[in-house]
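Journal club side-thread
Mid-discussion, someone asked how the predicted structure for our own chain would compare to the paper's figures. Pasting it here so we can look after the session.
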Amino acid sequence: MYKILIIEDDMTIAETLASHLTRWGYEVKYVEDFKNILEETAACSPHLILLDIMLPFFNGFHWCQRIREFSKVPIIFLSSASDNMNIVMAMNMGGDDFVEKPFDLNVLTAKVQALLRRSYSFQGNINVIEHKGLILNMSDASVLYEGARIDLTKNEYKILQCLMERAGKIVSREDIITKLWEDDSFIDDNTLTVNMTRLRKKLDKAGLPDIILTKKGIGYMIKE
C-alpha cells in the first residue's frame, strides 16, 4: 500500500483529501505539527507528498528543499497561487507537479496515480529511519541531523542502522558484529569498540551527545 503525506494547514482540505485518498486504497497521514515537518516526513517515510505552499513558520518551498536533502520522494505542490513564478519556483525547489486550488478531487487522484506509476514502476521504495531528528536514509546510505550531513564509514553506518532499527531497545554486541560481518570482512570485539567510539564522536560533534547508551556486559541502545 502506498503511503501519502499531506502537508496542508487548512485542516478541512487536509481531512477531505485524506478521506478521499483513503477510499482509493492509499495509507494517508497529514501533518498537524508544522514546526516539525521534517521529522514527521522522515518518520512517515511516504511514497508521495502533497505540499501546500503557504504554511505556518516556513513555506512549502523551504520544506521541499529540506526534504530533498535526504529523500527523492515525489512531491506535488498544492496552491491557489498558480502564477508562473510560483510554478517555476516549485519545480526548481524539487517539486514534481503543481495543482491549482480549488481542484477537482478526481483530477488530483489521477495525477497522484500517474506520478506513483512513474516513480515506482522500476525502483524500490525509499526507506528512511528517523529518531529525534537524526535521519538515516537507506536508499543512499546518507545520515543527516538538522540539515547537516554526517559522514560515516561503512561500518559506522551499519552500527547506527542496527541501533536505529531498534531504537529504545538493547542491541547485543554479538548482533552488531553479525550485522557488520555480512560482507565477510572479519570484525572482532575490539574492532566494534573502535568503530563505536568513532561513531559516538561524530554524533557528539553533530550535536547528539550521549544518544548511544552502553549497557555494560550486554550491548548498546539508542536513547529514547
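Post-session note: The first helix runs from residue 11 to 23.
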